[in-house]
TrEMBL record:
The lineage of its organism: Bacteria, Bacillati, Actinomycetota, Actinomycetes, Kitasatosporales. It comes from Streptomyces glaucus. This is IstB-like ATP-binding protein domain-containing protein. InterPro entries: P-loop_NTPase (IPR027417). It comes from the Bacteria.
């Protein structure tokens, strides 16, 4: 006697994926990681409507750059600044200078060369709008596909100590992240420092900037301090706090973008207390 049985259903008929199938979930994971989806035959849906930026860099990599920028802004507690662009700045914040500098950074990135000005220094009094201007710069840079990161100087120094960084990053990963990004915005240089910095702070700051200068990677700085103490300005400056060596690295191939203006956070009517 012979018996017959139905042949087992194909894997796809039973709701399973073929071993060589690239599912929508896998494609999404690859895209978030910056993979070149064109290699999988997935059309780039953004090339038609995003203009020249996507000619310079693959769309998935640009999306990854935007995600990295946004995450750094969240870590810096500046998420509310993600909405600012050059068009939102006033003349005191020098949007045209920042736009021209960004154009040179994009051209250098495309050609593999070094920008004519490697660093931008934005000094100004407390509340004058420095951080807003540099966040607008970072937002525009990320929109154009550059891997920009924002970090406060004091936060970087804290994260370089063991078990102090967010997301369980090691001290080595923290250093690598901020050395290798296309554009670093180092906010509030010497913030919370009113005397000579510790040996640790000097060493870590100089190491970061030395590595970026050597690699030709641009950095934008904001600070409330002057470059050094003078008779007219008796308070300690950058040179007194972090040393002449750091000041030299900071000013290497740099241009100045001072922000002059009143404290924008101060209420129109002074509080009586």
């Amino acid at each position: 006697m012979t018996t017959t049985t139905d042949a087992p259903a194909a894997a796809t008929e039973r709701g399973l994926n073929r071993l060589d199938a690239v599912t929508a979930h896998v494609r999404a994971v690859l895209a978030r990681g910056g993979a070149d989806m064109a290699q999988l035959g997935v059309p780039d849906r953004r090339t038609d409507d995003t203009g020249d930026a996507w000619d310079r860099i693959a769309a998935p990599k640009a999306r990854a750059a935007q995600a990295a920028w946004k995450n750094s802004m969240i870590d810096a507690a500046h998420e509310e600044y993600l909405r600012f662009r050059f068009a939102d700045l006033d003349d005191n914040q020098s949007p045209n200078k920042l736009r021209q500098w960004l154009d040179t950074l994009l051209a250098a990135k495309k050609s593999g060369g070094r920008p004519s000005h490697l660093n931008a220094i934005m000094p100004g009094n407390v509340g004058s709008g420095k951080t807003t201007a540099l966040c607008a710069l970072g937002n525009e840079a990320a929109d154009m596909g550059l891997r920009a990161l924002m970090v406060k100087h004091s936060a970087y120094l804290t994260w370089r100590r063991p078990d102090s960084a967010p997301h369980n990053l090691t001290t080595h990963q923290v250093r690598t992240r901020f050395i290798t990004c296309d554009l670093l915005i180092l906010d509030e240089v010497c913030g919370e420092m009113d005397t000579v910095a510790s040996e640790f702070a000097r060493r870590e700051t100089i190491d970061l900037i030395d590595a970026r200068v050597a690699a030709g990677r641009p950095t934008a700085y904001s600070t409330n301090l002057h470059r050094r103490r003078t008779k007219e300005r008796p308070l300690p400056g950058i040179a007194e706090i972090l040393g002449e060596r750091f000041l030299s690295r900071m000013e290497h191939s740099a241009f100045l973008v001072p922000v002059v203006g009143p404290d924008r956070r101060r209420p129109a009517q002074q509080l009586d207390w």
